[in-house]
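User: Hi! I'm a student and our assignment asks us to look at how structure tokens line up with a sequence. Could you show me two examples?

Assistant: Happy to help. In each example below, the sequence comes first and the structure tokens follow. Example one:
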Amino acid sequence: MYIGAHVSAAGGVFNSPKNAAEIGCEVLQMFSRPPQGGKPKPITDELKEKFQNAMNENNIKAAYIHSPYFINLASSKPRIYHASISILREELERGTLLGCKAMMFHPGSAKDVGEEKGAEMVIAALDKILNGYEGTCQLLIEISAGAGAIMGDRFEEVGSFINGSKYSDAIGVCFDTQHAFASGYDLRDQSGLNLVMKEFDKHIGLNKLVASHVNDSKVDLNEHKDRHENIGKGYIGEDAFKYFVQHKDLQNIDLILETPLNDNRAKEITLLKSFRSG
């Protein structure tokens, strides 16, 4: 288990390993392109070398890419649907060039097409994204908080996306403590966490779990809102993260903070590391 955070790649992705090391990260997450839209900088041989050198110099074990925010694999607008597919494939290719471990994304919202049609669209999109892909950066579906018609908040649904794809073996999952909690999965004590992991294994499979975002929650259980809070400051509570870090089923995944940016980030990493060691 390695511990890290989402860090800035402003000025170039090669800056992210240094930014990560400064707060004690062992792994990092970043955007490889502007998250709100816009043309990405190409991954040239020079940029690739600078990034990999920075990873080595700062002793960062692995890098993850988070997809842009505007992705929607259930959009009723063909332009958005097809652009989402194209960009996710492009991000996988960019991640492969950089040597990144995986790229996580949110499936999107089915508000215009309905849940059943939305699921069909997501599965078809997964097949298009992975068709002919031979890269090393893995595609990860991120558990969502389920606000409105946002897809991917239930383990059954995420499992159906993966199992419905022709490329199910290539797809993994990024858990998110805040999103899961907001979706009704109670992680606050040991017994609750055990039940959540049992449910995850039943519907998705623990072998699919690659990484987890570790965030406390500004909203209470089952409120279906995506609202991250600093560790120990929200409704999940500090003890839950100790149980999470020490859980027997989670020892081979990477943990990535996406808590609110403030002076606490380095302290949160130190705290999670202390849970890991004892």
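Example two works the same way, sequence first and then tokens:
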Amino acid sequence: MAGWGAARRRASLAPVTTHRLDRGTARRVAVRAQLLDAHRPTDLLATVDRLTFLQLDPTAAVAPNADLVAWTRLGDGYRPSDLTRALEQDRALFEHRALVRPMADLGLYLADMAAWPTEPVRREWLAANDSFRRYVLDRLREAGPLLSRDIEDRSVVPWPSTGWTNNRNVTQLLEFLSARGEVAIAGRAGRQRTWDLAERVYPAGTPVVPAEEARRQRGERLLRSLGVARAVVVGDAGEPAEIEGTSGVWRVDPAALDGAPFTGRTALLSPFDRLVHDRRRALELFDFDYRLEMYVPKAQRRWGYFALPVLHHDRLVGKVDATADRKGKVLRVDAIHQDVPFTGELAAAVHDELRALASWLGLAEIRLPAG
């Protein structure tokens, strides 16, 4: 621990360079960092390691987010069963709080788990339900892994909420114990999580990285995956940068400024893809205006329920409103929104990606909008 602190102090005394980037360079740094340039990866674990995580989301209008993000990087060689195997059999990845992370990163989160929760409401609810907590741990020890519905609700005080979690006491306790690192997600039965004692899911003897050092390392890893970001996202990671046409200071991964030539490609992105997840960053770097509209009334949608952002080389150029009809084996495309006029080459590249997506999904037909 002393070594970490000394190294950090020495680094803080080094002269700091502020990089000045045009927006084209910043975009290419961001695209390459997210493994969306022409040099596609071939290994799932290496891909997750570079991205630092895959976000889980139950929406599957086209495909579940984690699978769609993985396919966008890896292509047709990726299968959802690869992710399942890495999580449940190989234990090379772990699921925690709706994110899939490399198991090698577990030590970067253990200190925060041990300190959780910091909010008085959660602390007080856990304290009031300590007998419930001990029952759940004993039940898992005897019979785990288990679905939440296989665990009796023995709460003393119900979880207070006006939202969907109201009185869902077993699920809330499992979520809380997972956040504390006492239980872990062992796998899934369909879409339902199975829970077990963390000691039976996480590797024994994983070193705990102290909280401050862990935050620094997480910031550095996150910046490497983004290429360029605001300090509010990545802290003091990387080096400061000013980007043409934007205000304020950014942080850039200096290793990304190696001068290597950039070769792009066309890709259909998940709405949750990290290249577009930060809507302000997407607007500042890419002039890309976007929001996820599945919670917007249909009559008020501009782009569609689950519109896929379109990346072409180092520009975000449009959105594709698509839905996978698995029963009919059709990829239905209701609209292709062009943020910039598509050239014949760009239109052909988008259609090629649609064909590749339909093939990967096992859909026999693409139904394009009339005209």
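Here is something you could point out in your write-up. DSSP finds 14 helices and 15 strands in the chain.
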